[in-house]
Amino acid sequence: MQKNKSLVLGITGGIAAYKAAELVRLLVKSGVDVRVVMTESACQFITPVTMQALSGKPVFTGMWNSSVSNGMPHIELSRHADAILVAPASADFMAKLVHGRADDLLSTLCLARDCPLLVAPAMNKQMWENAATQRNIKQLQADGIEILGPDNGEQACGEVGLGRMLEAEDLLYLIEAHFQPKLLKGKNILITAGATLEMIDPVRAITNLSSGKMGYAIAQAAFEMGAEVTLVSGASALKPPLGINTISATSAEAMYQSVMQNIVNQDIFIGVAAVADYSPIITSDQKIKKSESSLTIELKPNKDILAQVASLPNAPFCVGFAAETENILEYAEQKRLRKILPLLVANDASDALGSDHNSVTLLDKNGAHPLPRAPKIEVARLLLQHVAGML
């Protein structure tokens, strides 16, 4: 999260108000200045005292507040805010926004704002699916209001379906994305990530230590920057980022097929996955039983996905990764030239695999551009800024 951002968090009446407490905690931890505004109904679900303790700021619940110097909190609160987020936003409150009603502090604040407005809906599935709610959602989007969610799952009423408010971690992710510059808006990006599994028998495979963290971070950063992102993921324990089309491809061959089926109309291809160079020629249908004899497995080379994409007619802008353990820049530059890539990212495999941080060097025709060691999401943002500059 960019430091020194200021956010007004509006809370309306609904059981999902309890999630707002965790959201405030995460926002404050991220360095965001949070001002909380609650409707009268919201105070029935969670207390202003709780929100004040978490935000470290007074909570506003009514139009008439003597602590505001000019007596107009509906004007003052939004003037220094970078955005207003309403979470949870009830069906009733969204209807107010559509019609410009201003009968309490929060609705008046939203009407009198100069900053962006984000809305996280939360309601029963029937209320969400109601034609009136769907009309209101379309109108809010047409009015430039950003809709975050809702999620699909079990609801407080016991039913299952769309209408749940997104979890606090997901909302934080989308707020971070909102504040990132949209350097790649309108671009289509295909990214590979994670390790591949080359099966020996039904329970054994040849693989590597790639966690997928770098590729997933690049997918997240690309989404933040406004791109349409497709992530082809090998084996990884990570949760796919919101807003991204994720395709599972466990083996090198499956990843190759997935990439080639989705490469049309892509503007950028970033090959981050640790694709196995070799796979067994013969895969046993049954588990190979242990014996005292030695076991020989004959391997065949796999297709080079990055090289195949880079050699396509009208190929997308291709970015490769080189994870080396010695002579890192020398070997990486040789790989870049051999595959005719405009950009290659070199890193130390022993330092990067499985880590939450990374230190990389970007190699292009103008030379080497080292990036400082940082969390992988920060490295991903710097990498994509460089790509945007090259484009």
Please supply descriptive tags for the structure shown above.
single chain, 391 residues, alpha/beta, Rossmann fold, 2 domains, 8-stranded mixed sheet, 5-stranded parallel sheet, 21 strands, 34% helix, 24% strand
What does this structure look like?
With 391 residues, the protein is α/β, with parallel strands linked by helices. The chain has 2 domains: 6-179, Rossmann fold, CATH 3.40.50; 188-390, CoaB-like (Rossmann fold, 3-Layer(aba) Sandwich). 34% of the residues lie in helices and 24% in strands. The chain contains 14 helices and 21 strands. The chain has helices at residues 17-29, 48-55, 73-79, 91-99, 105-111, 125-129, 131-142, 168-179, 213-224, 252-262, 305-310, 328-338, 349-352, 376-390; strands spanning 6-11, 33-38, 83-89, 117-121, 146-147, 151-154, 160-164, 188-193, 198-201, 204-206, 228-233, 245-248, 268-271, 278-280, 299-301, 317-324, 343-348, 357-358, 360-364, 367-370, 374-375. It has an 8-stranded mixed beta sheet with strand order 12-11-8-13-16-17-19-20, with helices on both faces. A 5-stranded parallel beta sheet has the order 2-1-3-4-5, sandwiched between helices. A hairpin with a 5-residue loop joins strand 6 and strand 7 (160-164). Helix 1 runs parallel beside helix 2 (48-55). The mean pLDDT is 90.
Number of strands: 21
Class by alpha and beta content:
alpha/beta
Task: State the CATH architecture of the largest domain.
Answer: 3-Layer(aba) Sandwich
The CATH class label of the largest domain is Alpha Beta
Structural domain tally: 2
What is the helical fraction, as a range of percent? 25-40%
**CATH fold title of the largest domain:** Rossmann fold
How would the global form be characterised?
A: elongated
Largest sheet: 8 strands, mixed
Which stretches of 5+ consecutive residues score pLDDT under 50? none
Q: What's the mean pLDDT score?
A: 90
First-to-last CA distance: 25 Å
For the CA atoms, what is the radius of gyration?
25 Å
The strands making up the biggest β-sheet line up spatially as: 12-11-8-13-16-17-19-20
Helix count from the secondary structure assignment = 14
* CATH homologous superfamily annotation of the largest domain: CoaB-like
How much of the polypeptide forms β-strand, as a percent range?
A: 15-25%
